[in-house]
Amino acid sequence: MRRANYKPIFASFLLSVVTIQCMLQSSASLSVGYYKSKCPNAEGIVADAVRSAITGSGDRGIGAGLIRLHFHDCFVRGCDASVLLDGPNTEKTAPPNLSLRGFEVIDTAKSQLESACPGKVSCADILAFAARDLVVLLGGVNYSVPSGRLDGSTSSSSEAMQFLPPPFGDVSQIQSMFAVKGLTLDDMVILSGAHAVGRSHCSSFSNRLYSWNSPDGVDPSMDKNFAAYLKTKCPKNGGGDPVVDMNVVTPNKFNTRYYKLVKAHKVLFTSDQTLLNNAQAAALVNQSSNQPYTWPRSFNKAMLKMGAIEILTSANGGRIRKNCRVAN
Ligand code: HEM
Ligand SMILES: *[C@@H]1O[C@H](CO)[C@@H](O)[C@H](O)[C@H]1NC(C)=O
Ligand SMILES: *[C@@H]1O[C@H](CO)[C@@H](O)[C@H](O)[C@H]1NC(C)=O
Ligand SMILES: *[C@@H]1O[C@H](CO)[C@@H](O)[C@H](O)[C@H]1NC(C)=O
């Protein structure tokens, strides 16, 4: 009788051994310095391409675009560069693509890498390196990026719809979409700080300006002056879909401003503002707003976790694409 009691304990012990082994195996497929022998200057080539893109074009906003590309890549089919594939019904063609930008920078880096070391460096790794380089160039803290990702061959707009969190979602909806990818509520709060940089189209938040279920149609959780300002940028019947900076104070600076703006009710999306509706998330928002030293390091850690989502192996279809836009 007593022995029988051990069975479930033993089974769960075995299960945890297996789980730990799987975790070790999946993290073992990425390593810092992976290209050291395969293509020694791979990271340098990406860094140069990225640097000249944001200084050359004078468009530092491209930098924000590249950080976002890595996020979109990893949330759909894992970090496999599926976001870069051209064609009908790919992720790019789905509505969450709004303003995805920076594709040409990846093309440039890739063609330089193909001349330096043909067929060696994956598009998915280029995205991960570029996101890191941009964080640094915009004023964040440097971090080592484990690499060895492989590229996929499929990209689907319906999967982009299914897995990319919408700006209209509230904290609990966004939390569950992060959980599907193995990321916690804390990871979500920390990563959302990326909204310190870049821009948004009016259509991503105009639900909060004109059609909220409130007497004046404005989301009552938005600061009144901020709402009035946004209405001048995004007129109700203005036509087109203008863009506004996420962070009007320091639009191209990778800092903790985002958290101060959340606290001040001056952020664009429902997904940003409703962080305050969850006690744990609100506490981390408050903490991060006061931690210009700690937050960038927490951000980097969370980026590494995001950058390790569902990594492909060659056994399950991973490859190194020659052209990041084509499934070759
Ligand atoms: C938490 C859930 C998230 C939602 C709902 C969300 C949604 C959005 C939306 C709607 C835009 C503006 C698109 C447009 O209208 O042009 C945007 C921009 C951006 N997002 Fe997020 N995002 C989320 C998380 C993240 C994460 C985890 C990162 C990176 C770590 C990120 C980085 C960015 C950046 C840098 C931009 C600016 C892009 C540019 O200027 O081109 N976002 N996001
Ligand atoms: C983004 O999606 C829209 C449909 O919502 C589509 O018209 C547009 O062409 C897509 N952008 C890209 C770069 O494919
Ligand atoms: C960031 O760190 C990596 C190594 O981890 C290094 O290759 C790269 O040059 C650094 N970037 C900057 C801008 O210092
Ligand atoms: C925010 O953090 C500060 C100190 O870091 C603390 O004094 C304050 O009580 C916190 N506010 C909330 C609402 O948690």
TrEMBL record:
Cofactor names: Ca(2+); heme b
GO biological process: hydrogen peroxide catabolic process; response to oxidative stress
Disulphide bridges: 39-117, 74-79, 123-324, 202-234
Keywords: Calcium, Disulfide bond, Glycoprotein, Heme, Hydrogen peroxide, Iron, Metal-binding, Oxidoreductase, Peroxidase, Secreted, Signal
Binding annotation for Ca(2+) 1: 73, 76, 78, 80, 82, 91
Cofactor note: Binds 2 calcium ions per subunit. Binds 1 heme b (iron(II)-protoporphyrin IX) group per subunit.
Protein name listed in UniProt: Peroxidase
Annotated organism of origin: Ananas comosus (Pineapple)
Ranges annotated as spanning the membrane: none
InterPro entries assigned: Haem_peroxidase, Haem_peroxidase_sf, Peroxidase_pln, Peroxidases_AS, Peroxidases_heam-ligand_BS, Secretory_peroxidase
Residues at which Ca(2+) 2 binds: 250
Organism ancestry: Eukaryota, Viridiplantae, Streptophyta, Embryophyta, Tracheophyta
Name of the encoding gene: LOC109709485
Active-site residue numbers: 72 (proton acceptor)
